[in-house]
Design a protein that fits this description.
- By secondary structure, the protein is α/β, with parallel strands linked by helices.
- It folds into three domains: 352 residues, Aldolase class I (TIM Barrel); 141 residues, NAD(P)-binding Rossmann-like Domain (Rossmann fold, 3-Layer(aba) Sandwich), CATH 3.40.50; 131 residues, 3-Layer(bba) Sandwich (FAD/NAD(P)-binding domain), CATH 3.50.50.60.
- It has 23 helices and 31 strands.
- The strands form eight sheets. Strands 3-4-6-9-10-13-14-15 form an eight-stranded parallel barrel, surrounded by six helices. A five-stranded parallel beta sheet has the order 18-17-16-19-31, sandwiched between helices. A five-stranded parallel beta sheet has the order 22-29-23-24-25.
- The structure holds adenosine-5'-diphosphate and iron/sulfur cluster (SF4).
- The site of adenosine-5'-diphosphate (ADP) has 26 residues, from α14.
């Protein structure tokens, strides 16, 4: 199949300084939780993107000098020559498919607490470091000699980047993470010398660094500047007007302007809070201020939106981080006319949580992300089946859908049985909640793929019993029957059912999703701590309830700190008039009253409400699996070889976990590694030969 000529414009080459990108698909730098700890895993992940057709593939942020680092977060490092091979492996991997390799050099400055290097942080002005964790560390103001040194460190790092094979070097001054932004912004730059005050002065270091870079490696490498479109903090900052003045002032300074949004939270907003192309108004018109190409982001997954960005002169290059994680083959699919096969990012930021938790990133839509090297998984290819066994998958939620899809790709004959009238399980239910419509893409992508597979049969309204399953006689059975929310308060605060005399109506998230809603004054107890409590509070407000959200945590939706949503969630609930009670737990329901207690002192308080919503924990629907286990003596006669339990039916977790388990089931159906071996490759730090 060939593409529609409408998309040809996306495949035009773009010259960036001394190099040329083969098309307009530009994978902007993005974290992955692996960084210097898992360099081969990161290299292989980037290689798969190059294979998927991205014209430019970037590293994540690379700390360019040991005097500024962001421990505990794990990115890449280019501190001395010893780091070059790790970076070279990535550049080589990217070059294998004719993509340009980009490296994002960062001097975190006031964003680096230096918990590992123990160096004193330096910044334009002496202020406390600005990190996610409010570390009790302050930065020292840079002297002129520090600035001279910083320029020298940049020149050295640039040479190392060139030696490692990079074609583009991005100097990072966005998201509050790079020293260039700290000089530009009046939040962090209060200097009175020639590096502070006017915009010309605040941009002096930026100009010097770019000029140094062009002089040092500009013969071979393109130099891009990554800046925030606006940064507004307490009336200070760097406004969008100033950004435009800055571009006009230094119009042709870098080879490329890379425009991101203010803070990382703003730039990587979730689909619950921002639509695709949310930055368009802030970026429109910047291109007319410079003769150099402009790249920008906006969680672009629609090829038509991309074409519009280029045709209307907003952007030259389509910058993508999350869309390239969800579908590394997005450009190839457009190029070959397979738009309907694009696995669209749902904008959930589970990928970000891998970085924020210093673990390794996952993707809700792409279960192979960061497993390309660790497990040898590939987003578009999978081993062919090893036998003619037939597989029954019971339950078509994220786990069952992905298991069936990946098994179908392997060529297995698959039957997918679903009790409900529609596919999708929890994603179908949750996608109807306020702000979560993009969740439905988890189902939509898989539903379409399954419809194209000749060996997969899908049966709706087919609730199966253990007897049915044994009578069918499939060789392999995967139970993916999901989970349901508990009504009894059990989670972290209550590990046993809480006291409840039944005097008040109690609702669960499942009730609300099924349209069964409370009325009047509602206490919503959130001991789940992710998105569900806050989303249901929104739903209740929309249904004219008076809502009090009570949580034992110090934060509303505490875990959403890891998806960069916590601040906007609190803001939205506060604006909607939800009363937010932190550090308290629902202790009991009695005599039409609720008793809550302080998480720290245990001090009780009673209140009168009309209803309670328990957003606490979920219980696996594993009854069918247990029944099959109890009938295991009959399996052999029925031809059943294995019965697996996957997804929420095994242990409830976010959607990404269920998709991963479904995929793993399909990958490992006929090739399970022995239980006592680590089921993925990893890299260990090389032991030093020096023993003191
Ligand atoms: P997961 O996230 O693990 O995929 P979900 O709760 O989203 O779990 O999906 C489970 C699906 O299994 C639901 O769509 C539910 O209707 C279906 N299901 C549960 N029990 C049965 C059964 N006995 N037969 C067929 N489908 C079932
Ligand atoms: Fe998109 Fe979510 Fe995947 Fe991140 S984890 S790339 S936001 S689908």
């Amino acid at each position: 199949m060939s593409r529609s000529p409408h998309y040809d414009i996306l495949f035009e080459p773009v010259t960036i300084g001394p190099v040329t990108a083969k098309n307009r698909f530009y994978q902007v730098p993005h974290c992955n939780g692996g960084g210097y700890r898992d360099p081969s895993a990161v290299a292989q992940m980037r290689k798969v993107k190059a294979e998927g057709g991205w014209g430019v593939v970037f590293t994540e942020q690379v700390e360019m000098h040991h005097s500024s680092e962001i421990t505990p977060y794990i990115e890449l490092r280019l501190w001395d020559d010893a780091d070059i091979p790790m970076l070279a492996r990535m550049a080589d991997a990217i070059h294998e498919y004719d993509a340009l390799a980009g490296i994002e050099l960062t001097y975190p400055g006031i964003n680096g607490p230096n918990l590992y290097s123990r160096e004193t942080p330096i910044a334009p002005t002496a202020l406390p470091v600005r990190t996610f964790t409010n570390d009790p560390v302050q930065a020292r103001a840079m002297t002129k000699s520090d600035i001279r040194q910083l320029r020298q460190w940049h020149r050295t790092a640039l040479k190392r980047a060139r030696t490692a094979g990079y074609d583009l070097v991005c100097l990072y001054g966005a998201h509050g993470f790079g020293v260039i932004q700290h000089f530009l912004s009046t939040v962090t730059n209060h200097r009175t010398d020639e590096y502070g005050g006017s915009l010309e002065n605040r941009s002096r270091l930026m100009r010097e660094l770019v000029e140094d870079a062009i002089e040092t490696v500009g013969d071979r490498c393109a130099i891009s500047l990554r800046l925030s479109l606006q940064e507004l903090i307490g009336g200070l900052g760097f406004s969008n007007e100033e950004l435009r003045d800055l571009v006009a002032m230094h119009a042709d300074l870098p080879d490329l302007w890379d425009l991101a949004q203010g803070s990382w939270e703003e730039c990587s907003a979730t689909s619950r809070f921002e639509e695709e192309s949310a930055q368009e108004a802030l970026v429109t018109g910047v291109k007319s201020l410079t003769s150099k190409p402009v790249v920008g982001v906006g969680r672009f997954t629609s090829p038509d939106t991309m074409v519009r960005q280029v045709k209307s002169g907003v952007l030259d290059l389509i910058g993508c981080a999350r869309p390239s994680i969800a579908d590394p083959f997005l450009p190839k699919k457009i190029e070959t006319g397979h738009i309907e096969d694009i696995r669209e990012c749902i904008g959930c930021n589970i990928c970000v949580s891998g970085d924020m938790t210093c673990s390794i990133s996952r993707c809700t839509q792409n279960p192979t992300f960061m497993e390309e090297w660790r497990k040898g998984w590939h987003p578009e290819r999978i081993n062919q089946k090893q036998s003619d066994a037939k597989v029954l998958v019971v339950g078509a939620g994220p786990a069952g859908l992905e298991a069936a899809r990946a098994l179908g790709m392997r060529g297995y004959e698959v039957t997918l049985a679903e009790a409900a009238e529609t596919l999708g399980g929890r994603v179908t239910a949750e996608s109807k909640l306020p702000g979560l419509s993009a969740w439905g893409r988890v189902r939509d992508y898989r539903e379409y793929q399954l419809s194209q597979m000749p060996t997969v049969n899908v049966y709706l309204q087919s609730e199966l019993s253990a007897r049915d399953i044994l009578d069918f006689g499939f060789e392999h059975v995967a139970i993916a029957t999901g989970a349901h929310w508990r009504r009894d308060g059990v989670s972290r605060h209550h590990v046993k059912p809480m006291q409840d005399d039944g005097s008040l109506p109690v609702f669960t998230p499942d009730d609300l999703m099924a349209g069964k809603l409370p009325q009047g004054k509602v206490l919503l107890f959130d001991d789940d701590h992710y998105y569900m409590g806050s989303v249901l509070a929104e739903l209740l407000v929309a249904n004219n309830c008076q809502v009090e959200l009570v949580t034992p945590s110090a934060y509303v939706s505490e875990w959403s700190l890891n998806t960069l949503e916590q601040g906007v969630i609190h803001q939205r609930l506060a604006e909607l008039g939800v009363s937010i009670t932190l550090n308290r737990a629902l202790q009991q329901i009695h005599n039409k009253r609720v008793t809550t207690i302080c998480s720290y002192t245990g001090k009780p308080a009673d209140a009168v409400v009309d209803a309670v919503v328990q957003v606490t924990s979920r219980q696996a629907n594993d009854g069918l699996y247990s029944q099959l286990q109890s009938l295991s003596a009959e399996w052999k006669d029925c031809g059943v070889q294995s019965v697996g339990l996957i997804g929420d039916a095994s242990a409830p977790a976010p959607i990404a976990w269920a998709v991963y388990e479904g995929h793993r089931y399909a990958q490992e159906l006929d090739s399970q590694s022995p239980a006592d071996t680590v089921p993925f490759r990893r890299e260990l730090a090389a032991l030093s030969l020096d023993i003191i």
